[in-house]
Amino acid sequence: MLAEQGDHAAAAELMGQALELAPDWAAGWDLAGSYHEKAGNLSAAIAAWRHLEALDDDGVFGARLKLAAHDAGPAGEGTAVGYVEALFDQYAPQFEAALVGKLGYRVPDMLDALVDEEMARLGIAHFQRALDLGCGTGLMGERLRKKVGYLEGIDISAAMIAETARKGIYDSLQKAELVAALNARRADADLMTAADVLIYCGALQPVLAALVPALKAGGLVAFSLEAHDGAEEVFLRPSLRYAHGVEATRNALVVAGLEVLRFETAVLRFDRGAPITGILVVARKPVVELTAANDEAEGGDVAA
């Protein structure tokens, strides 16, 4: 009640009294950190999150990320699986109402429009198999369905999978962590999408290193990122989402061996009334098999 009334200092003090009685209450340390942060007492918030980190073996409260976002510890390069899974399991029932209705979320529409434009330009009439990474409640899948023969969805959250299963959009759904799921695949998808998914993954290179081999030669990938203009490749925002550098993202795509077809900045949504600028990417895996076959043929002619 104190926190709801805006008296976060008093809420933090009361939570401190509770934690004296229940010192191993992880959720209590999480709340205490949040109240201290909102009250402007960052040192006390960091102390609370350090207690939380020691208690939360599975990382569902995201203590490591909260410390990293305030320069009190390393963020790591990969997805904080426990935190992201717990976040979206809790968020699933109100996900669409909050994201689309309140935050002006437009990423699926914008990515879908870019994919349509590239399909027209490249003469692609239809995709055989598409993989929607971080499919959530199916906002991206709804837009892909009409141009895909077989549509798969992957998400880390069982609650999100349950929500989208009710819609009957996907031909198959899998609960899995993104990189692990990609590493288990062969090159069988000619389209992959990731709408506001890689903002929880940190460094791009491990994701792209898993994604490219799972994509057919000539296949497309379309994804969004939150953006920043600094020299850093990536940094963790107080929102606990990663922002990627514009030039660093271009370089990561080139290093991964992808041909960049579209690379645009746009307002993705609003957060606390402020616009969130991001990057929209459509890239293609080169048709390396044909090139390799041609090189081999030319080498054979020379030898003959």
TrEMBL record:
| Domain Methyltransferase type stretches | 131-220
Biological process according to GO: methylation
An example molecular function term from Gene Ontology annotations: methyltransferase activity
What InterPro entries would the database entry show? Methyltransf_12, SAM-dependent_MTases_sf, TPR-like_helical_dom_sf
One Pfam family in the UniProt entry: Methyltransf_12
Is Metal-binding one of the keywords UniProt gives this record? no
Q: Matching PANTHER family, A to Z?
A: TRANS-ACONITATE 2-METHYLTRANSFERASE-RELATED (PTHR43861)
Stated name of the protein: Methyltransferase
According to its UniProt entry, this protein's organism is: Devosia salina
